[in-house]
């Protein structure tokens, strides 16, 4: 994708963030603190929160997640 295609696809930052979050939702996430794989989405913070230990992770921080397969 070149810069023109990128600009056409993502009209603003919100569109880019929404697409990135959608892609992250398809990945298997594992909490680095407790190993739980269930998360809440905290829209006001733009973060995932572990249902077990309440550790919060940014949806941009893919390095914190163990990516298995896309669903």
What do you see in this structure?
- The chain is built from two helices and three strands, in the order ααβββ.
- By secondary structure, the chain is an alpha+beta fold.
- It has a single domain, classed as N-terminal domain of TfIIb.
- A three-stranded antiparallel sheet has the order 1-2-3, with no helix packed on it.
- Strand 1 and strand 2 form a beta hairpin.
- It is elongated and about 40 Å long.
- The C terminus is likely disordered.
CATH topology: N-terminal domain of TfIIb
Number of helices: 2
DSSP strand content:
15-25%
Oligomer: single chain
Q: Indicate the radius of gyration in whole angstroms.
A: 14 Å
Strand pairing plus helix content: what structural class?
alpha+beta
Q: Cα distance, first to last residue? A: 24 Å
Which geometry do the CA atoms define?
A: elongated
* Total number of distinct structural domains: 1
Largest sheet: 3 strands, antiparallel
Question: What is the string of SSEs from the N terminus onward?
Answer: HHEEE
Fraction in helix: 25-40%
Task: Indicate the low-confidence ranges by residue numbers.
Answer: 62-71
* Strand tally: 3
Give the overall average pLDDT. Answer: 81
Corresponding CATH architecture: Single Sheet
List the helices and strands and how they pair.
Elements: H1 3-9, H2 13-25, E1 39-42, E2 47-50, E3 56-58
Antiparallel strand pairs: 1-2, 2-3
Give a quick rundown of the structure.
The protein is of the alpha+beta class and 71 residues long. The chain contains two helices and three strands, in the order ααβββ.
List key phrases describing it.
71 residues; alpha+beta; N-terminal domain of TfIIb
């Amino acid at each position: 994708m070149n810069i023109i295609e990128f600009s056409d696809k993502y009209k603003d930052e919100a569109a880019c963030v929404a697409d990135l979050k959608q892609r992250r939702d398809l990945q298997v996430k594992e909490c680095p603190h407790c190993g739980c794989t269930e998360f809440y989405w905290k829209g006001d913070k733009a973060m995932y929160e572990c249902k077990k230990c309440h550790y919060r992770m940014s949806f941009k921080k893919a390095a914190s997640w163990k990516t298995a397969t896309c669903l």
